[in-house]
Amino acid sequence: MRDLARITQFDRRQFLLSATAAAGLLPLITKAAHGETALERSRQFEETFARLTHGVTPVAEKIVVDLPELADNGNFVPITMTVASPMTDADYVKTIHIVSTANPVALVATFHLSPVNAVARVQSRMRLAKTQDVIVLAELSSGEMLISTTKVGVTIGGCGD
Amino acid sequence: MAANPRIKLPESAKIGEVIEVKSLITHIMETGNRHDKYGKLIPRDIINLFVAKYAGQEVFRAEFGTGISANPFVAFQMRVPGPGTFEFSWTDDHGVTTVATAPLALT
């Protein structure tokens, strides 16, 4: 009997715990799931992306983009882009583009490289108007394109007035 | 107005070594989206082009938009092909080009 009582008590506590957890967390989970899909992409972004990729479907590999998860100041966000490439005459990264999905102007910068660079790594500092995905596209000498998507949260937006 | 162009190179390098080259210039990078205190739009004024040459050959080029921060900074890598001097140029929306040069010390 004592054992049964303990079990009952435990069950009740567990039920309470899980109920509270479910009530408290479920909206958060739903919100997060919505947040992932609801990140707006500007029409200018879509047009710029189509122009830069010119019909080639970019592959999500070989690019590492280092951006902060949360940028306190959107006027000044450090970005480092590294593409795994042999950088030989036969196989090198020709261009790297930074494209913003929610800034007033989508194309942030284009960098032109060649085999003399030996390592396809570029660093710069960018502006972010608000929380958004930052897209980095790399075009290889073969014509193949690579893509990386990084979500950056912005506390105080840049670019604006 | 662009001012104070800076080039940062390693103190010395060997031929064949891959080095990091950093560049910075003082410039407001005005986006063209901001208004002055009278509500008038401040026209766009940015450095839109940066070109790096080494020993007379172009080794890196960047086209900047308004999404690049004020005082544009860029760093890139280069395998040292031989002795030479870097020549960097920054061009603004008015077509004005600022040039800076720096020799690379070889060991």
Write a concise keyword list for the protein shown above:
heterodimer; A: 161 residues; alpha+beta; 5-stranded mixed beta sheet; 3-stranded antiparallel beta sheet; 8 strands; B: 107 residues; mainly beta; Immunoglobulin-like; 4-stranded antiparallel beta sheet; 50% strand; SoxZ_dom (chain B); Sulfur oxidation protein SoxZ (chain B); Ig-like_fold (chain B); Ig_E-set (chain B)
Task: State the gist of this model.
The complex is a heterodimer of chains A (161) and B (107). Chain A has helices spanning 2-38, 43-53, and strands spanning 63-66, 70-73, 77-83, 93-100, 107-112, 120-126, 132-140, 145-156.
Any overview of this molecule?
Chain B: Residues 7-101 form the Sulphur oxidation protein SoxZ domain. The complex is a heterodimer of chains A (161) and B (107). Chain A has 161 residues and is of the alpha+beta class. Chain A has helices at residues 2-38, 43-53, and strands spanning 63-66, 70-73, 77-83, 93-100, 107-112, 120-126, 132-140, 145-156. Chain B has one domain: Immunoglobulins (Immunoglobulin-like). Chain B has no helices and 7 strands. In chain B, strand 6 and strand 7 form a beta hairpin. The chains are: A alpha+beta (161), B mainly beta (107). Chains A and B meet through strand 5 and strand 6 of A and strand 4 and strand 5 of B. Strand 5 of chain A pairs antiparallel with strand 4 of chain B.
